Amino acid sequence: MDFGTDPARTREILGRDRELARIAQLIDAGNDRGPKVLVLTGEAGAGKSALVEWAASHAVAGGRRVLRVRGSEGEKDLGFAGVHQLLRPVLSGVDRLPPRQRDALRRALGSDDTDESQAPDPLLIMVGVLTLLSDAATERPLLIAVDDAQWLDVGSLDVLAFIARRLEGEHITLLLAARDEAVPARFDRDFPHLAAGPLDRAAAGLLLDAQPHPPRDRARSRILRQAAGNPLALIELTRAFARDLDSRGAGSIDSLPLTARLEHLFAADLPALPHDTRRVLLLTAAAGSADLSDVLHAVPGLDGPEVWGPAERAGLVRVEGGHVRLRHPLVRSAIYQAASFAERREAHLALAAALAREPDRRAWHLAAAALGPDEQVAGALAESAERSRRRGGYAAAATALERAAELTSEPDQRARRLLAAAASAMYAGYPQWVGEIAARVGTLTDDPQLLAEASLRGGWSLAVTLRHDDSLAFLLPVAESMATQAPALALDALGTASTPAYNSGAPFYRTELQRIGGLITPPPNRIDCLWSQVVSHPFTDREETLKSLTHAVDTLQDGSLSDFVMLGGTAWILDETDQAVRLLGQALDHLRRAATAGTNCTVAQALALALFESGAWTAARSAAEDAFWMATEAGADNVTVGSSILRATLRAARGDHEAARAQAGDAVRGIDLLDSRSLYVRYCHALGMAALAEGDHKAAYEHFRRVFTQDFHPAPVHYHASLYYLADLAAAGVRAGQADDARSVLRAAEKTLGAARSARLDAIVHRASALLSDPEDAEPHFRAALADPACPRWPFEHALAQLDFGEWLRRRRRAAEARTVLGTALEFFERLDARPWIERTTAELRATGVAVADSATPEAVADLTPQELQIAQLAAEGLTNRDIGARLYLSPRTIGFHLHKIFPKLGITGRAQLRDVLGPARLPDH
Length: 926
Description:
By secondary structure, the chain is mainly alpha-helical. Helices cover 63% and strands 4% of the residues.
């Protein structure tokens, strides 16, 4: 909510000079300088709320507008409740948003119930909030002040985290306070933290001296010891000692933890209060809302000042402007816990009756009042979940369905509601939560299909992590047990299992995929079969599998999400890379409308890999960064590691070998990759690329050699991924004096591959063979590596083969032929901005007698960040700031901010000059 600050509430804060200076730095920093986000942490009673209040006062004094959000235990299960608080003062600007953002935001906030057949696009909701705030900040800079973030609903936390990562160029800063043991996952690692720790003894003494009745002597020492530097404890213990000069009451709580001790102290005031005051306080605590009308509707006639006065005088509440504010969250806990269950139940029932027109809140109050299983209340919660789902509030839906299941007496129905909760948690992007919910189903039912569905959900929750064995332990038994009883469910499980089986790379799982797949009689036109088949045997029956893929794609009309994912993955393994980019891009579009962050990140990573292989390196970098952030939020460590390795590979390919090594090392620190062969192989490739970029061929060979075993007949460490690095291994081996060892690897690999291989793999094998052959036998292999017209679809690999052939021709004194081949290679490398190879190719061309100018890539363009380059490219195409923002999920103001940074770097003054500076080779590669 947007309101001014009360000077009486922003008085001097003792012992917090360091914290105040850091918060002031956040607020006072120039609009374009320094961090824009700060996470304030501390234990209960540490004074976080006082610091947030001080920040608001400081911001107002500096001419900023303050938008406030305060988490509430009573609203943590209501979807987008925090967003509603945040936007309430600026909702008048919603009508000025682009139509799709406007409609999505209205539906999320419950102000538009039209077209409820499909949930609004979560990204549109988030971008709409960002655009609305950005527009408001053009009038006056904003401070978003969030307190008690640990009690915000998950949907609102997602929105705040989305905004927090996109504040560059905005006149917006964000201060978020949360208890240190409960910092929301979205904010626990990726933003600067400021800890409000215990006060030192001197500051604690000054705070005691500032109290109305400062303690002395033994009482003072005792308070200092018990409070342990906690400001609220210092104040409350002083009040307690003042009430009981013999200290008997305070002494009885010596052994309690700090929070329980404070709750006890707050509750100590309650018995002396009038009955009506205690009643309205309990209603306030049970309501979990600051809106006074909630309480007044629940207890008509108790609205006089005589009811609230005793509570205000006791320092428990503050009533102002139609709102009741409890002095501290622990006050609510103390009031609520001090009441008997019968009293709490009566309060919730009264609130439920008062909230008849707010069915979601009413359902939760009825649930709090339930004495046991209650199908009517469970049904109300299930209906609330459905409303949340239609608004895109999947986390709120999952929470409501979990509670509905607890109130359901019939075991199978309870299991079904838990499975529905797991599905919503999956769409909310919380794999760990999905696993926890699914695990409870097994204790409720003996129904084989329900148990299989629970195992499927549990296996999915682990499939996005590095726990491949655990995931497959769920999924493969489901596929086998349901093979004849429920073949569609069995195929779902087998298709889901194929991804961790591929990532693991263990031969046993490939065998199991093939064996179990043979037990299933698939329904007609099931695409899952293709995916599991190609994962288990990527080089067997290639032509037949390719025909099936082509038929499936040609006949795909209104394909489902899983269809696009499975077909895209199949195309990628078969080296139909352009097809994979198209299909996985369509899958990602589907997922962005469904907010399945756990799956979203895996598809984004697969798309990034396909884009890298197809030469769309800028788009690959962007997709890998998106995958990393989504995986970080979802707890999908398989993608967190994999996307970081891909970004390191891209750095190496463009010549930043030191940063590439550092990023790859950071990605795998503390992780054993031996059980994740696909990531291990890609990690070795990233390090090998970094060594090649540096010109260290010995180190490069050592890294590439590790993707094959050290056996007498070397085998691929990963049955599929390792084979794509044969040519790189051969190139490094020749220069490192390891040609004989490299030949043994190549001979063994050729037996693995057989004759029916893709044009890409055929070119890789021929390039390796050319490099490792006797000089007089190399030319046919070089020409074969370049002959297939499909080869330019993998431009980096194609250019490497041309470079190697050009070098071979030059050394055979065939300079004229070498110039043609090397010139083509240089064009590819320049388009990719593969700087080490640009330099090497340029040197070879000069050695043939060609006067080659320095790289056509302007220095200034090379200085642009990937995001800046992407924005420049889109602006060069003629897109407006609003169009670019909608495509990149940034506000138009942020796009303008970036363009104003881009123009000076490129030495231009306006967007009309962008196309000339970037040139056709620099137009978007997506």
